Every structure is written in structure tokens, then in C-alpha cells.
Amino acid sequence: MYFLTGWPRRLLCPLRSEEEPFYIQPSSQRFYFALLSETQLSVWFSRPSVLIVSYIESAKAAAQFGFYQKAEWKPDDSMIAVATAKGYILLFDVLGGGDDKYLYEPVYPKGSPRVKVTPGFKEEQCAPALSLEMKKPVDLEAPITSLQSLQEDLLVCTADGYLHVLHWDGLGSNGRKAICLTTIPFSLDLQSARGGPSLDLEGVHIRCMEYCVTLDGFAVVLSDGRLGFITPLSNTITADQLQGVWAADVTDGTCVAVNNKYRLMAFGCASGSVLVYMIDTTTGSMQLSHKLELTPKHYPDIYNKTGPVKLICWSPDCSVVMVTWECGGLSLWSVFGAHLICTLGEDFIHRSDGTKKDPLKISSMSWGAEGYHLWVLPHKQERRRQEEQDVEMVAPPNSSALQAGILQFHFIKSALTVNPCTSNQEQVLLHGEDRLYLTCGDPTQIHSNSDTHPHTHLHPRDGSPLHPPPNPDSSLSQGLSTLLGHKHWHVVQIHSTYLESNWPIRFAAIDTAGQCMAVAGRRGFAHYSLFTRKWKLFGNITQEQNMTVTGGLAWWNDFVVVACYNFIDQQEQLRLYQRSSNLDNAFASVTKLHSDTLLLNVFRDMVILFRADCSICLYSIERKNDSPNPTASVELLQEVSMSRYIPHPALVVSVTLTSVRTETGITLKAPQQACMAESIMLNLAGQLIMLQRDRSGPQVREKDTAAVNKKLLPFCPPVVLAQCVENVWTTCRSNKKKRHLLEALWLSCGEAGMKVWLPLFPRDHRKPHSFLSRRIMLPFHINIYPLAVLFEDALVLGATNETVLYDGMQGSSEPLEALFPYCTVERTSQIYLHHILRQLLVRNLGEQALMLAQSCASLPYFPHVMELMVHVVLEEEATSREPIPDPLLPTVAKFITEFPLFLQTIVHCARKTEYALWNYLFAAVGNPKDLFEECLMAQDLDTAASYLIILQNMEVPAVSRQHATLLFNTALEQGKWDLCRHMIRFLKAIGSGEMETPPPTPTTQEPSSTGGFEFFRNRSISLSQSADSVTAGKFNLQKTFSMPSGSSAKGRDVECAENMYIDMMLWRHARHLLEQVRLRDLGCFSAQLGFELIGWLCRERNRVARVDDFVLALKKLHKDFLWPFPVIPVGNLSSPLKNGRCRTGE
């Protein structure tokens, strides 16, 4: 979602002062930032991050008003209100310097095409010259605790329990209105407001307050620590029109921040936790949604020592929240509680030598434009101590003034936060303020035909296009080698010319093939091709500056679909631009819209728009090649009003058109409807709503209706599918072999993990049971934050923050930002299939689990999926402190037996598990001796060798010797020489008596092709030679057998007996080979195992080495070595009859 990158940047104020800034407040668009020190008000610009103007209070005025404490901007950025310590409100007019006055201007080289531009263009890339002018102050006669700006009013809370409503334009006595807090009735909910329990607010005032637009009310923290929400019952704020509700059982509130998009209120507490509340729409009460707190599992040293929560800041797109505490540190959570970053652990609090650092204490912080930066003001004492060290080095000795410092933390975020279109859901696309991060493959491998065939598969090594699969839709999915081939990002720098005038980037989109990107800033847009490595910008700068993207942008084949506002016509439009054509309105397909567009998405050949009037519009797109430049025709298909169900249009997070439906494909009356637009998924403030097409009426066959006159079916009333939803993934592709995965709906739910709405199909097209629902919602947890779902590959892609410690300047002069490690963003992925299979087995849906697993059996990591499922269930059940009434492990074991990799799965899982859990495991899956014998019967000797390690730990040495002998003889017969060498060492270890004591748990992770006996390589067994040295010569093994290594007589006797036992097995196998006249195999046997063949043949010359049937032995010898039999030439044949006749003729 949001990821920290690099080191923080330090901004120094050019004006030296004894005062340090302690409060920062952004303007409505976050282009300006107001900074307060005791007697100074400064305004900074966002890009470039420079100081524009600073107002310094005179000593006389400072003595009258008191020090500055808080500030608030007017929504149109024309005024700043400052609260002082002695109860005054100081209002400052922010005045512009005129059209031709700029504080900073860009300097272009001679001949640059960016010099001569249209009027107004220059303003976008210059820091304006502003001035501050103070108006008449307002004395509220009490300490001010909170400021809140509304459209025309300024709300001020004072410590005497009053809420003052001041007009921005008339701050004199006529514009002032005061409301006493005790006159506002508070109750637990609005239904019991007239007769229920009420709060006694005598002597209580509002400590912190923030207005929520979508809830139309104020979230407040009272001075006694209680939490509340005040709702105006009418459009005007008066004492008799305010009603409050309070949260029960909370008395330690410290601060509050509201989330307008999700209608959430985050309250900080003295305990260090953040309580996130929502308002119940039926009763009006405050309900706890979730908590944000550090867990002892991940932060055992600090989780209960953070102190009270000091500040809470939601990002501009409302998708993440930043929290800091009194003891310092920063922590980032997603909107529903997925923990992303924390600076109170790992490399953030440790130096490279292992010593601990004190966390950075923060006095104020604010997000920058679009959430790319976090502006942080360090605590005064820390900054003063640090800057004094810097001044000693660089300032003159007589200078005691200090430079104020601001820290800027840099973030990159997922494109899903503001532009959740379908193509962005199948690729991981992150964007910072000036660059894009992609997970697609190397663009140099893209063939030259990629422009004409944008979805052609490319081989990751040779770069040549492969033949497309029979199903054209399946070509939209990238291969695993492309998405998981490496962990590096492909970074694309956004064109600097576009950024100069259109920063910040607001929307970004990538096409389904992952080869084309488009970005949109304040005005216009630009797109990039990985194949050409070039950006395309508007050739006419006027066209770029006359449009702004409002509802996002998406890709449809090789067209960019844009929902924008045209400033010339003053109208909302839907535009399609062809990728290969010049970026010009002359080549665009323009459709006029009747209302502002908030969201845009694409499904197959359809565009879905969500508009500001709470309506949804469906458009069809058709490509036309009737001109040299291809165009697209857009036609309105359907319009659906949602005003009854959506209280505020800003609450809609995403809108998606899907083929998901509650019926399975078998029950549909028309099979071709499986891939049609069947439903609309709407994320309404975290509540996922589904609108499905109403098929209850008479169905008309598609062939009976002309395509032009075909009318789309209406939608049923909405149904709530899930709560606390952050992201939704679905696909328009179809695959009969993987219907479960492709027809499912995937949800990301913050701290609750992920959920999948899985379809259930009857097996072998049988009639479904009446009690079996057609879909089921399955929750599961993953260890990464999901950014993309690979449906066919059963993988979740994501990203995570990693840190790198550097040895900076040691000593007192270490800069403040160097206290942080260097942050990088790594690509991650995780398998989720074992979670789903387990959930199905828990719900007695084993048949569905079997169908799903069989459809994924061809995946390269499917064996690992089986191991994970066994391992997770085993760990939970075997380590449970309480008895489990219905254990799942036997069911999982029975499920795995349906697959040929059952034996390997069990032994691999056992060898990765603690020895103490083996008894529980094999009590469920079967006796390891029986499993060993099954491996021998299946001729799977490598897996059988792995079971020997299990037996050696669970059985007495005699049993291990018996099974090892069986495996040794089988390996000799099949010529598995590596395994034979390990078996010799294994038997030697048993004979030495080492295994009489309980052995340690094996620690190897994966058995190799040699049977997994590398476990014995590093053990102190009595073999004096390694397996590699055994093969060096034929005398090595003989030497090992004949030389005892024990120090006692008993040890030597055991050693000699074991040597004799192994020798007898080798002699027996050699006799077997010689009896069958398999001299070639005998030679290999001798060479591989160092068998003393000459001496043994001498001893056996009168026994098995004696040849009784020379003819049979000779034939087998020729056959064994593929030698031809001797043939007599034709000329050497003598015929007495022929010779006689010749003599007769003479």
C-alpha cells in the first residue's frame, strides 16, 4: 500500500532563529504548509520544498497575545488562523505577489521548447511569491485547545468548555457565536437521546476535535479522556441543534483524526492504542471497528512502553494512517489495521554495531500532496541538541542562532490506492512522486511485434514470441518466470517535462500485459511503452493544460481510457486515445458525460463509470479500423441509479464490473453467459456491495435478438458480501480446468487478512445438493500485504519494506536523518492454496477441496502446498495446550493420500518439524515402517531413504538395521550407487553404537536425489572417510572396513562385526551378479563402491567364479557388452563339392 523509501530529506530554514518550529498545518490541496514557532509564522511550498514567506511577531505583540500554538487554513487557502497562548485568534491574509512575481522560477537552456508557452503555464512550475498580513485579532478570553476549519466558519474550542463559531470574513463581534458544551446532550446512541443516560459535562472541555464531511459531524476528545461524536441536526451550528454520542468504557483519549472516505474516527489513547470507531447507521451509536496497536509478538521490548498516542494522521487518499507516540517513533497501518511500517524495531532502533538508538520524538507531522511525503518536525530538545552540534562545526563562534529543520520522509504507494482499475489488480504497480515501479519482465525481451500484438507471450530467455494458447483470454496472464523471475523492480522515470507543470502524479495505470503505463497529474496525462522506452506527451501543450483527469484512467487493449474534465467546454468527458497514434485530441474518441466522474473501470469491451450523482453508467467500446489511425466508438448501454444506497459519493472506494454470480455455470440457462458482465461490485466505505443481474424474468436467447436491439437485464437490489474491505480482485478470463480460482472473488481486509468468495461445483456435473450453497466465503491470513492476485498460479504478489544499515559519521556530528536506516522496497509473493484447502476441509467440503487441488496439481510448487498444509495443522494441534475435540490432521492425511506425492509430503514435513511432534504426526498418517515399505514397493528409494532417518530416531537400532538392509539390497540391485555409499555409512553408524542414545532432531530442509543422507556428513560417526573419498579408489573402502577406530576392545569388536556384516552383503551381491554372468554390472559395482574385486575373485575361483556352461556364459558376455559374435568371411568357406567339380573340369 504505502512503502518508505530511501533516507529522509532534511529541509533547513534559510532564516536563523532562536525558535524552532513545533507545529505544521497543510493547506487544503497540500501545496502550502504553515509552520509555527513561538513568535513566527512561516509558509513553505511543496515542490520545490522552499520557504516562501515568514511573519515574525514583534516583542510587544508577543507579550500581548502570547506564543503561537496552533494554526488552521481557510479552505480556499486565502487565510490562516493562528491560536495563541493567551486565548487570541490571529487571522492572516495570504496575499499573492501578482501574475509576474515568483519567488523561484525555472531556468531553461537556450533553444528549449519549453520557453515559449501559453499564459498560465508558467505558474504551475514556479514557487509563488506570497505575503502575510495580519488582521484584527479576536480575544476568546480562555486558552484555546482546538481549531477546525469549515467552508465559511472557523470552530474554536476553549478550555472554559465553550465551542466558538467564528466567520472567516467577519471575525468581529457580529461574526462570533459561542456554544457551551454542557448544553449539548450526550447519550450512548441517538435512539436513547431523550431518555437514556447522559454525560455530566460540568468542568469538561473539548481537548481535540476534527470534522468528518461524510458523517456530517465532529469527532471530539474531552478533557476527561472520554470520546464523543457531535452531530448538527440542521445546517446551522447552534446550541439547540447539536446532539452528541459517546463511547462507553473509554476514559483515556488523547487525540483524534477522521477518515472521510471510510467514515472512520481514529482516537489515540494514553495506553498507546488507537481505537478506530464507526457510526452505526441504524442507532447512531459509536461502534468499535478495530484497534491499531503494536503486538508483543513483533515488538516484545516496546509494545507496552510507547506512552500515550501523540498524533494521528490519515493520508490524503485515506488508505493509510500514521501514528506517533510520546516516546517517539512512527508506525503506519492500512485503513483496516494491516501493519505496514514501524520505526520502533529492528534496524530503526539499532546501530550497525548492535547498540540501541533512542527513537525520534516528533512534535508535529503532516502528509504532503498525494501522500508522497511526510513532513515531520522533530521534538525541540532533540533538534536543538543536534543543531547545536552542527552549528559548532559550520557557524561562526559568535553566532548563537539556529536553523530550523524539517524532515521529509519519502513514500511510494500502490496504484490501487486511488485508481483501482482491473489491469492494476493483476500487476504490481507502485508510483512515487517522479517514478514508477513495475514487476514486469525485462523490456528488452519484447519482440518488435509487441505493438501489433500487445498480449503475445514472450519467452523469458530467448525473447522470441511463443505461440498464443488456444484460448485468447488466457494470453492475458503473464508467466511465473516473468512475474517471479527476480526480486528487482523495473523503475521507469516519469518524464521531467510532464512533471514540471503537472506535479503531483495523481493516477497511474498499467495494461494487462504489463508493457504500457499511463500517468495523470494536475493536468493532462502521458503514457509510456516498455518496448520503445519512450514517453508520449501531448504535442500541443494547450490541449494538455485544458483537461484534467477526474475519474482515473485505464487501458483497453491499445487504447487509454480517460475520464476527464474539459476546461474549454466546461464539461465532463470520456476519452479514448490510441497508443500508437500521436497524443492529440484529433485522434481521440470523445464522449460527453452529464455528471462528474469519480471512478472508472474496464471489463472486456465495456467501461463502467461511477458518477458524482451516485449513478453507474455502462458503456460499450468497439474498435474501428476505417481510417489510417484506429479509433473507438463508445455507446451507452445502461444506467443504474444508486442514490438510495449511497449516502455520499465520496464513500465509494472502487467499482468493478465482474462475471461473478451466485449461480454456477451449470444452473445458468445460457452457457455463454459465463463470461458476461453479470454483476457490479461496489466498495462502499469498506462495505462490499454486489448488484447482480436479475434473471428471474423470461430469458431471451441471444440468437433470437438482434445485437442492436438487445437490452441488458436490470440489476437486483444490492447485497452486502463483506465488511472492512480494502481491495477487490477478480478476472474476466475463463479456464475450465481452474474454475474455482478464476471464478472466485478475492478480498483484502486489513488486519483480518484475505477472504475468498469461492464457487462450489457439483462433481462430474451431478445435480447439486439442495442444502449446498453455491458460494462460500473463506478467510485466511497471509504474511504480506496483497497488491495483486495471480489467479491461475494461486499466488499473491506484494511488496515489503526492507532496511539497510550504513556506518555513517560516528560521533557527535551525525546528522539527524542518518539516525534512520536506508529503506528499500522488495517484491514478495506468497502461496495461499493451502489456506483454502484447509478451510474447505474444516467445513467438511473435502470433495470441493479435492477438485481444487487436482486442478492445481501441475503447479511446480504444489508439493510445497501439501507440505505447508500438513505442517500448519500439525504445529497448531500438536502444540495445543487444550485437547482438540475434532482434530483436522487425520482428515488432512486422508486428503493427501489422494495424490501420488503422499509419501514424499509426509517425510518432508516430518524432517522440517521438531522431533517431539513426530509421534502425533505418525499417529495420524500411519506407522513410518509401513510407509517405508510402501516406498520400497513403489521403487521410490530416495523417499525410503528419508524415512530411514525417521526410523533411526523413533525405533531401536535393530529395526533401523533391518530396514536399512532392505533398502541397501534394493539400491544395489538397481545400481543406485550414491545411495549405496550413504547406506554403508548409515549401517556403519548404527554398528558403532552411536544410535543407542536418543538422537537429535534432523535439521535438513529438503532431501536431495541421494536420499537426504547429507544429514550424516557432519556427524561424528565412526567412518573415517566421507562418501566422496570412498569413490576415489578401490582400496579406500577396504581400508575403512579393516581398520577399527574405537578406542576400547568392545568398540573394536563391534566395529569388526559391523564391517563383516557389510562385507557379507557386498559379497552376496557380487555372487548374485556373477551367477547371472552380469560382468558389466559387477565392474560398475566394484568401481563405484571400491569393492576389492581381484582378491574376491581369487577366493571364489573354485566356487561361484567357476564357469559350468561356457556357451551360455559367452552369449551373455556378448549381450552384456553389446559385442558382435565372430563371423567367417564368405571367401574363406570351403566346399568339397565345388572343389571336386573344378578338379574334374581340369
TrEMBL record:
Transmembrane segments: none annotated. GO terms for cellular component: cytosol; Golgi membrane; Ric1-Rgp1 guanyl-nucleotide exchange factor complex. Residues 442-478 are annotated as: Disordered. The keyword Ribosomal protein does not apply. The keyword Membrane applies. Residues 450-464 have a biased composition (Basic and acidic residues). It comes from the Eukaryota. This is Protein RIC1 homolog.
